């Protein structure tokens, strides 16, 4: 029996090529009662045609209460309006995480990420959390303005996935709404100082709240994962079953992010720079 109630992914047409691969890996390696990918209305038909019937495909507007990319863009200065979609997909995830019963455990999973072995997200009654090493101060400036909470850990929660309890997300959103007097989206958009193109992270916001209010209810895993999927493997289509089996001995999942795909011309340089010790072993598989 699975401990995850709902796997939540968000994607758009630019993610469709990787989604054709990643959603099968998600279904095969992450047990859950429900799976949903939220996409723009214009992309529904193409995603439904490309997605296994076990994985629900829903319109992102279903959880946005009338908000859309245009309305979010209207709150940004002209030079940052192209970032509206980036903010919108985070609000979709936060709203979707509030579905289910009070004790539901929901998982946000990045649509461009392939789990390569069976994963569990609850151990001994605690949620299992992956970590990363990045740090971006504007995220924490926004978190402080929204919640009054400060960073208390020396790691990042931006690790392609995060399991949370539904009532934690409810409590976080209520905290933001009570503190600001606004609903979640208005509160976030009104508390950006527009000094950076990236000033809000759903992962860091949820993680900061968890680390302060629910520190004893989650456990960090030391399992490894890989961010440079394109630089190392040139795309998910290059991952044969044999390579995946070999890779699964070293990491739990591999991300194939757009920014890494754009740098593929420099893949040899990237491999020398980021290749972990296991790369030659997997590549030879």
What features would you describe in this structure?
This protein has 285 residues and is of the alpha/beta class. It has two domains: 4-220, Spore Coat Polysaccharide Biosynthesis Protein SpsA, Chain A; 229-283, no CATH class. It is built from 13 helices and ten strands. It has helices at 16-29, 44-50, 69-73, 84-96, 137-147, 166-180, 184-190, 202-213, 229-233, 241-247, 258-262, 267-274, 279-283, and strands at 4-10, 32-39, 56-59, 105-109, 113-115, 122-123, 126-129, 161-165, 218-220, 253-255. The strands form three sheets. Strands 3-2-1-4-8 form a five-stranded mixed β-sheet. A hairpin with a 2-residue loop joins strand 6 and strand 7 (126-129). The model has no long low-confidence stretch (mean pLDDT 93).
How are the SSEs ordered, and which strands pair?
Layout: E1 4-10, H1 16-29, E2 32-39, H2 44-50, E3 56-59, H3 69-73, H4 84-96, E4 105-109, E5 113-115, E6 122-123, E7 126-129, H5 137-147, E8 161-165, H6 166-180, H7 184-190, H8 202-213, E9 218-220, H9 229-233, H10 241-247, E10 253-255, H11 258-262, H12 267-274, H13 279-283
Parallel strand pairs: 1-2, 1-4, 2-3, 7-9
Antiparallel strand pairs: 4-8, 5-10, 6-7
Protein name: DUF6492 family protein
Pfam family, one: DUF6492
């Amino acid at each position: 029996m699975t401990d995850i109630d709902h796997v939540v992914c968000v994607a758009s047409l630019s993610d469709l090529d990787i989604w054709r691969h990643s959603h099968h890996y998600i279904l095969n390696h992450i047990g859950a009662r429900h799976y949903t990918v939220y996409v723009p209305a214009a992309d529904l038909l193409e995603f439904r045609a490309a997605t296994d019937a076990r994985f629900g495909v829903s319109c992102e507007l279903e959880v946005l209460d009338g908000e859309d990319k245009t309305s979010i863009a209207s709150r940004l200065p002209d030079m940052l309006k192209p970032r509206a979609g980036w903010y919108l997909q985070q609000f979709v995830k936060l709203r979707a995480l509030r579905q289910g019963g009070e004790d539901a455990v929901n998982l946000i999973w990045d649509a461009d990420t392939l789990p390569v072995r069976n994963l569990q997200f609850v151990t001994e009654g605690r949620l299992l959390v992956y970590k990363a090493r990045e740090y971006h101060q504007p995220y924490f400036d926004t978190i402080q303005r929204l919640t009054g909470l400060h960073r208390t850990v020396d790691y990042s929660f931006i690790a392609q996935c995060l399991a949370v309890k539904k009532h934690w997300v409810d409590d976080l959103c209520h905290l933001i709404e009570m503190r600001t007097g606004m609903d979640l989206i208005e509160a976030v958009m009104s508390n950006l100082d527009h000094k950076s193109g990236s000033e809000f992270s759903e992962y860091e916001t949820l993680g900061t709240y968890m680390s302060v209010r629910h520190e004893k209810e989650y456990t960090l895993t030391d399992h490894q994962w890989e961010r440079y999927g394109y630089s190392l493997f040139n795309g998910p289509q290059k991952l044969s079953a044999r390579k995946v089996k070999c890779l699964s001995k070293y990491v739990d999942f591999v991300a194939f992010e757009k920014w890494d795909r754009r740098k593929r011309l420099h893949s040899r340089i990237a491999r020398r720079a980021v290749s972990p010790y296991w790369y030659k072993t997997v590549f030879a598989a």
